[in-house]
Write a structure and sequence with these properties.
five-stranded mixed sheet, single chain, 3 helices, Ubiquitin-like_domsf, 121 residues, alpha+beta, methylation
Length: 121
């Protein structure tokens, strides 16, 4: 594979630490990058992704779509990395699934009886 088809990417976590850098093919999808992040997540972090769908990747201020390839996203990458040859830094955001947070927060929706003990003089 020619060197120009490869991109070096590292992932910046919420606490400023990094995973990588890793070298990816231009045909690698964002979903593949997310799978790598979940499998290589450092031990001992307070926030841990449970699944790939909880990971959001941000590059050049944009959330990257899972179906996009590194090559399709490379235009802003080249500008950020100084025209190639540099390591691309993607920011990692962990967003727990809504189903989990809804079940963890039990809300009492039962009707309440309001009793008023007002006295009129």
């Amino acid at each position: 594979m020619p060197a120009e088809d490869l991109v070096d990417v590292k992932f910046r976590l919420y606490d400023g630490s990094d995973i990588g850098p890793f070298r990816y093919s231009a045909t690698s999808t964002v979903d593949m990058l997310k799978q790598r992040i979940v499998s290589d997540w450092p031990k001992g972090k307070t926030v841990v992704p449970k699944a790939v769908n909880e990971v959001k990747l941000i590059s050049s201020g944009k959330i990257l779509d899972n179906s996009k390839t590194v090559g399709q996203c490379q235009v802003p990458f080249g500008e950020v990395a100084g025209g190639g040859g540099g390591v691309i830094v993607m920011h990692v955001v962990i967003q727990p699934s809504l189903a989990k947070t809804k079940t963890e927060k039990k809300i009492d929706d039962s009707p309440r009886k309001i009793v008023c003990s007002c006295s009129i003089l």
